[in-house]
Amino acid sequence: MFARNMKFSVGAGFAVVLGLMVALTLIGLKQMAAINDRLERIVKDNNVKTELATVMRDSLRERALNMHTVVVLSDLFEQDEELQRFYAHGVQFTKARQSLDQMVSTAQERAILSKIQRHTEITQPLVLKTIELAQDHKNREALQVLRIFSCGDRHGHHSDLGAEPSLIFFSSQPGLVPALAFSVLGVQRFS
Question: pTM higher than 0.70, yes or no?
Fold first, then answer.
């Protein structure tokens, strides 16, 4: 009788332990799948935001180069080609910015995009004035406007706005950039 109860107890104990191990394995696998799904969503979201930020940064850099080139060109056809590239990069920036606006998910990201918008509002008139002066063949005046961008105003205050709206935001605010998953961009200062 004792041996029979002992076999039953050992068998029942073994079955309970085996059942608990299977249950723990199933719960663990389910939790791992959930964690993997969340991680995958985060990575995809951040990768898209990073790509859009890269497009914005590169478009601004190229626009700045195009603007400087337009100012120094004397051939009207070459100047027009450079202007077309300038405007094309503006379209790329705008599309990336609009896509990024739709993806913003935190207050910090909204604050960063607001700051970019403020920089754009400040510098856009100067950019347009520079292009207008270059098209009117007033290169000396256009160069003076560019000098204000890069060297500061007549009082010696360094505007540090770069040659295009928001370019300096990307290059001078590295502490804010990671909020939009920009940290992998290796943002550098452009002048």
Answer: no
Q: Which residue has the tokens 């063949």?
A: 137
Q: What is the distance between the alpha carbons of residues 25 and 137, in angstroms, rounded to a whole number? A: 75
Asked whether residue 43 is assigned to any structural domain, the reply reads no
pLDDT for position 178? 33
Distance CA 76, CA 69 (A): 12
Quick one: how far is CA 41 from the chain centroid?
17
Question: Could you tell me what percent of the chain has a pLDDT over 70?
Answer: 76
Binned at pLDDT 50, 70 and 90, residue 181 comes out as very low
Check: CB of residue 54 under 8 Å from CB of residue 181: no
Residue 114's domain comprises 52-185
